[in-house]
């Protein structure tokens, strides 16, 4: 296996630049913040950004926990990637990670300053420490289960029209959107410097009630129950429909709208929306 490393201080945009570096070097997999990522998919590991304190986050990123380390090592041995990028804040950290995971020492060591300008690093720093935003180098659809409810959204990309017109390709400013690493996601982790936050079941229930109010067939929601799981939530709803409604169509419409709107407004991973029709009501 050919191992590369990307080094830079915390908050300088390493995870954001990782995809471009992988595209240029043809690197198949990434070790970043405790995760093993292969072709844009999280295959194993626990993200440091899921930890409650900075100390726990550092230990996770260094694979100090044997169970965590062994899980990732087994998956790497199973997948056997030809190349891997290890991301860290220093060469010492990179060496600790490769030692813990039984990986070869880096074939090439890249510093974030080789890929970005001082202005770009300053912008990344502000995003991290003023807005609490962290980048995960995988698509939102892949990272949402791992970070359910962590204010997830994809990084927006704008194609470089000038490069397209000139037929040029700048590997660190213009991304090839066909590459599996192209999309990134933004999360706000538990140990955010802006403080902790929580989304209550009542808040989710209020959103569901508001969403249901836009559906003409729905008379009332006598029951709203939210079951919390580590990877997301299961929503149970009892519904009274207006007499004359097409019951299957109304239920599917409500189910789809709740899943879309609650997921959009909270970034919570909606595992399922289960609807029970509890009655019909004549128009009042």
Task: Give the topology, please.
Elements: E1 2-7, H1 14-25, E2 29-32, E3 35-38, E4 41-45, H2 54-61, H3 66-79, E5 83-88, H4 91-101, E6 108-111, H5 118-129, E7 134-136, H6 140-143, E8 153-154, H7 161-166, E9 185-187, H8 201-212, E10 218-229, E11 232-242, H9 247-266, E12 270-281
Parallel strand pairs: 1-5, 1-6, 2-5, 11-12
Antiparallel strand pairs: 2-3, 3-4, 7-9, 8-9, 10-11
Helix pairs in contact: 8-9
Structure characterization notes:
It contains 9 helices and 12 strands. It folds into 2 domains: 2-187, no CATH class; 201-281, Cation efflux protein, cytoplasmic domain (Alpha-Beta Plaits, 2-Layer Sandwich), CATH 3.30.70. Helix content is 35%, strand content 25%.
